[in-house]
Specification:
Layout: E1 6-17, E2 22-28, E3 42-48, E4 54-60, E5 69-75, H1 81-87, E6 97-104, E7 115-121, H2 125-135, E8 149-155, H3 164-173, E9 177-183, E10 193-194, H4 197-212, E11 234-240, H5 242-254, E12 262-266
Parallel strand pairs: 7-8, 7-11, 8-9, 9-10, 11-12
Antiparallel strand pairs: 1-2, 1-6, 2-5, 3-4, 3-6
Helix pairs in contact: 4-5
């Protein structure tokens, strides 16, 4: 089946990290009244390069569904055709059009909502921002159903914590949203957490289990149990580079977590 191509108009653009050359984009699809998608999905951008070859790149949507709009969070990559095309102001001024198709992907929140640990590094924060906006909309009912939601976000330097103030404000507004930012190469002025995300994920799992009186490692699930009958009281959603994703998965497997509790997306 031929994929429907939409013309997405650039409505807003902001550099949210000079050091990492990371940009926040907001697009509008004027031909649609609404562009429905599940938080965590991605769109594919398509364009011809200088040699006339069609290039396609997948980008996680960095927002929850909102009318006919969607957001992206993109780092400029040396030698990267699409990231540079998007990030360079002379090439893509406000009002410019990019062609996209989608939404695609299965990196979405499992239903019903359970306690969840959202784990991201770098631009892996994009789908997590979508999850947070969907769970805790500024207008409309809270969809978290009172579940405990942790966002564990790791990067090297403070300047590379994208949407940092936004997540801090959400944590101040919602007592069941816990924002855990950690730096692996923090400067002396950083007063927050240090280290890698898997270390802080481990602390969350252990503290939660102790508070609820749950055993660790968790008792194994009978392999004969059909997937449709598996219900977990907590999930982990992981997005980032392969080494981080693998490290967190191994950490959680060590606690006896079932593979279906661990939902992940890699972008390398």
């Amino acid at each position: 089946m031929e994929r429907k191509i939409y013309a997405a108009r650039l409505d807003r653009k902001e550099c949210i990290s000079e050091s990492a050359q990371c940009f926040h984009f907001e697009f509008v699809i004027d031909e649609l009244e609404s562009f429905p998608f599940a938080a965590g999905q991605f769109v594919s951008a398509v364009a011809e390069d200088a040699n006339g070859k069609q290039q396609t790149r997948a980008y996680s949507i960095a927002s929850a569904a909102r009318g006919n709009q969607f957001d992206l969070c993109v780092n400029r990559v040396e030698g990267g055709f699409f990231s540079n095309h998007l990030a360079d102001l002379p090439d893509l001024p406000i009002g410019s059009i990019i062609n996209i198709h989608g939404p695609h992907g299965h990196f979405i929140l499992r239903q019903p909502v359970a306690d969840s640990i959202l784990i991201a590094t770098g631009t892996g924060i994009a789908p997590m921002r979508g999850f947070a906006q969907w769970l805790f909309p500024e207008v409309g009912p809270d969809r978290s159903e009172g579940r405990q939601i942790w966002l564990v976000y790791g990067t090297r330097h403070e300047s590379e914590l994208y949407y940092h103030e936004e997540f801090e404000a959400l944590a101040a507004r919602k007592p069941n949203f816990h924002y855990v930012a950690t730096l692996s190469r923090a400067g002396e002025s950083w007063t927050g957490l240090r280290g890698y995300v898997q270390d802080h994920v481990g602390k969350i799992v252990e503290q939660r289990a102790a508070a609820l009186g749950l055993p660790l490692p968790a008792p194994p699930i009978d392999p004969a149990t059909p997937a449709t009958e598996m219900h977990f009281d907590i999930h982990a959603y992981i997005c980032g580079l392969n080494n981080m994703v693998s490290g967190v998965r191994e950490k959680l497997a060590g606690y006896g977590w079932h593979r279906k509790q661990i939902i992940f997306e890699r972008y390398d």
